[in-house]
Amino acid sequence: MAAPQDVHVRICNQEIVKFDLEVKALIQDIRDCSGPLSALTELNAKVKEKFQQLRHRIQELEQSAKEQDKESEKQALLQEVANHKKQMLSNQTSWRKANLTCKIAIDNLETAELLQGGELLRQRKTTKESLAQTSSTITESLMGISRMMSQQVQQSKEAMQTLVTSSRTILDANEEFKSMSGTIQLGRKLITKYNRRELTDKLLIFLALALFLATVLYIVKKRLFPFL
């Protein structure tokens, strides 16, 4: 059965290898990073954290080596510690170089963006001028439409006023028609009454004439034919 100290040494070695690989992977990410600067800062923070963990594990391994009873095992572990420290220093050098490469790439990218930004600024200026011209044309068109609408509104107002006047005229004519209708009805009644009276008068005249003729015939009869 392995001693607890051997188990601890094995765990330290495994952790050191794991952190070393993670540091190398992060350094490669920094090397491949093209910005922005905030991304580089975030990667560097992760590398610092892994270096601290790696350094802590190397120190634990070194302490375990010093506690070894056998000199041979002690020297073997101290040699591993020295190798890990050497590898960590190599990683730190690679880290600095990766940062330098990444910063140069970011600076070049920013310079290119500035140059491109100048071109974009010129294009944007041209676009703004074109938009301003288009906007002016649209504004003139809208003003023309507004004037036409104002004229249409004025014409509609005049037409409405004419319609109101015509309506009033029609209403007045209707009132006059009603008044004339009443007069016509009254005249019709008077004419009907006159016609009836005329018929009565004719009948009376006819009866008077018939009576007159009967009287004349009676007188003539008595004068000419007294024996009858």
UniProtKB/TrEMBL annotation:
The keyword Heme does not apply. InterPro entries: Sec20, Sec20_C. Keywords: Coiled coil, Endoplasmic reticulum, ER-Golgi transport, Membrane, Transmembrane, Transmembrane helix, Transport. One of its GO terms (cellular component) is SNARE complex. It holds the Pfam family Sec20. One of its GO terms (molecular function) is SNAP receptor activity. Belongs to the SEC20 family. This is BCL2 interacting protein 1. It comes from Loxodonta africana. The gene is BNIP1.
